[in-house]
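USER:
Working in pairs, take the chain set out below, taking as long as you need, and write a paragraph about the fold.
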Amino acid sequence: MLQDVAILFGALLVILAAAELFTNGIEWLGHKLNLSEGVVGSVLAAVGTALPETLIPIVAVMSGTGGEFHDIGIGAIAGAPFMLTTLTMSVCGIAIMIFTMSKRRDGDLKLNKVVLARDLTFFILAYTIALLATLLTDMLIARQIIAVGLLFIYVYYLKLTFAHEGEAGEAPEHLHFERLLKLKQNLFIIVVQALAGLAGIVWGASVFVDRVDSIAEMVDVPGVILAMIIAPVATELPEKCNSVLWVRNGKDTLALGNITGALVFQSCFPVAFGVAFTKWHLGPGTIVSGIAALACAAIYLILIKKDALKYQHMVLGAIVYSSIVGWLLYTHLTD
């Protein structure tokens, strides 16, 4: 147990360091390519940091044909949006509160509401379709058609995101590879740093999840609850780390776009895989967490459109998360 805990914290440190490399590299890549903050946060950063949790359900389903493997896959798919809309958003809200109290920034959110509203709208559409697809458990062809439709939704989302003429972000701080390794800054070195950071995030998250899995087995946690609660906490660490780093510097569109963009990606690609390659039979806990994710996203969307979103609203996501997690654990313990 002690060895597992030590490796767990080591993996966390790797994720933190790699996230710093990745965010710095992605910012410079967007700056060099003259991309808007919306594209950098919602597409480049979101897709990159979403890779670890995207691999979990695919590996789980492809690892075997037993029901437990499919439960783990479905739990991981449903757990990611739930985690992003509740715990991850609350972590950002708490970070803004702390940085405001320490005078690192002011408490007002500086958001591009067009970018974030578009992300949340696409997420609500795609994830609602995904939850309704559970009614088609015995209709494989219909579910495969829905899966293809979800992929096309993401393609259309990318088209709108890249077409939006948003403002390009300010020049970031010095590229870390330039400062630490004395390498001349150019596009190739920027890409190498971003890829190195991404590789570190993926490796660290993989080790983290593996250790969490080992520890959870010792305390007898079912696979579906493990996948839905514990695994997403580990794999969402990149989004949390990247977003906290950005809100520290007042880059709120990048920070929240990293989360909302990941929501769109998660509701399309992993969900499409689950809908097409599993029976997509969602249990009560999975459905409740999915509805909670949609409800939180809808509230954020309304507040953003009204220019009324405050960090205090985001902090409340922790209450939603802890309430549902508490209910799931209580249900397991009383079965």
Notes: The two ends are 27 Å apart (CA to CA). Residues 2-320 form a domain with the A middle domain of Talin 1 fold (CATH 1.20.1420.30). The mean pLDDT is 81. The chain has one domain: 2-320.
